[in-house]
Specification:
The chain is an alpha/beta fold and 384 residues long. 34% of the residues lie in helices and 15% in strands. It is built from eleven helices and 17 strands. The strands form five sheets. A five-stranded parallel sheet has the order 14-13-12-15-16, sandwiched between helices. The relative contact order is 0.13. The model has no long low-confidence stretch (mean pLDDT 92). The chain binds FE3-S4 cluster. The site of FE3-S4 cluster has 13 residues, from helix 10.
Length: 384
């Protein structure tokens, strides 16, 4: 682990000076114990709809300086991948989104366009430090990979990519990675979407805490389940880290068990997080986080023309060919303009439910199978 007192000079462009100043200011605000060398950066702020003209201009200005990332750096999802745009976006939208990706590429950032970079590229090693801006990926990194990262903002992750360092504070420090509260999970939670509900439940009940979980021996704890748990935990208020006894690499000493949670609690929460009444729907959104659902090719034989509701499966560009007709490769509906008329949406992701509701949509949250059923019938029938 390489720690220095000040952000090293990594280049003399205005982009490098901006990056260094930002990291110094963040380090000062966090009362950091110096700056630690990172193994990789993962950068958010890729959707043209989020960045707008101002954000695009800022990125292109940085890129014109010739500055380049000095560590491996990857990108979060954009609104859509310009080579495979959905049919409801304009030529101008496609050009603007392509300019964003070009600016990042000029800055030495790989256009991976995924919120799960650890699934398609080699992640840092256990104990290494990183600057990952996507909250679900940062939580997965801390909890499942044992990689140390704060939940960075997009500009901070870009600055870290240019300088190769981040403030040595927060979850980079041993003392901030210890669990705050231990819980017993009564039921195995076989399906990934149930792990997402567990994350939402934990985030709501214990905001800002690192939970330590005891799960039943037969609980599968798949990568997809951990992805769903990671995404929902931070979305609903938790810290960007959890531990699972016997399953995650830093699950050491735990505080005494303070609470239990079981399937009935999660069923009640699923109803609470849904505000969609029974009836016709416009869209089904799966694949949040990327690659978490539907996973391992478990997709019903559903031809695009047989779906009554628009089925959108977000995924990394490299997985696009897997679900022809439905994919939003490299994209995410939470940061994208939706097809005209979409108001009523169904998803299996607690994180997606949160963000879609915050955009004013009516959302139903249910299992992956129920979502496929809704795509085929065009209707929602799981309201209480
Ligand atoms: Fe990824 Fe979008 Fe979900 S960025 S975690 S698919 S809300």
């Amino acid at each position: 682990m390489q720690i220095v007192n000040d952000v090293p000079s990594c280049g003399d462009t205005t982009a490098h000076r901006w990056a260094r100043d930002l990291l110094r200011a963040l380090g000062h605000a966090a009362r950091a114990r110096g700056y630690v060398r990172i193994a990789s950066a993962h950068i958010s702020g890729v959707s043209y709809w989020n960045l707008g003209e101002t954000g695009l201009h800022f990125l292109e200005t940085l890129a014109e300086t010739g500055a380049r990332a000095c560590v491996p750096a990857t990108l979060n999802p954009c609104a859509f991948f310009p080579p495979a745009p959905p049919d409801w976006v304009s030529e101008e939208d496609i050009r603007s989104q392509a300019r964003v990706l070009s600016a990042y590429e000029a800055l030495g950032v790989q256009p991976s366009c995924t919120c799960a970079p650890y699934r398609s590229l080699p992640p840092p090693l256990f104990g290494e430090h990183a600057a990952w801006a996507e909250s679900s990926a940062a939580t997965f990194a801390n909890s499942v990979l044992g990689v140390r990262t704060e939940r960075e903002g997009g500009p901070a992750a870009l600055a870290a990519a240019l300088c190769g360092y981040v403030p040595f504070s927060g979850l980079h420090l041993d003392e901030n990675r210890r669990p705050d509260v231990a819980l017993r999970v009564r039921d195995p939670l076989q399906e990934p979407w149930r792990m997402g509900l567990l994350g939402a439940w934990l985030g709501q009940r214990f905001p800002g805490a690192i939970p330590f979980l005891y799960v039943p021996d037969e609980a599968p704890c798949s990568i997809e389940g951990f992805q769903a748990l990671s995404a929902a935990l931070v979305t609903y208020g938790g810290e960007a880290m959890f531990c699972v006894a016997g399953r995650t690499p830093e699950a050491g000493a735990a505080p005494p068990v303070r609470a239990e949670v079981g399937s009935s609690d999660l069923d009640a929460l699923a109803l609470q997080l849904s505000d969609l009444e029974n009836g016709p729907i416009d869209m089904v959104f799966l694949g949040c986080p990327h690659g978490s659902s539907p996973s391992n090719g478990v997709v019903p034989p559903l031809a695009p023309e047989s779906a009554r509701a628009r089925l959108v499966i977000a995924c990394a560009p490299v997985r696009a060919a897997k679900f022809p007709g439905f994919c939003l490769p490299g994209g995410c509906p939470a940061v994208s303009v939706l097809a005209p008329g979409v108001r009523r949406v169904v998803t299996d992701s607690a994180k997606a439910a949160f963000y879609l509701r915050s955009r004013g949509l009516r959302v139903g949250l249910a299992s992956t199978d129920a979502c496929f059923e809704a795509a085929i019938t065009g209707r929602w029938s799981h309201a209480r």
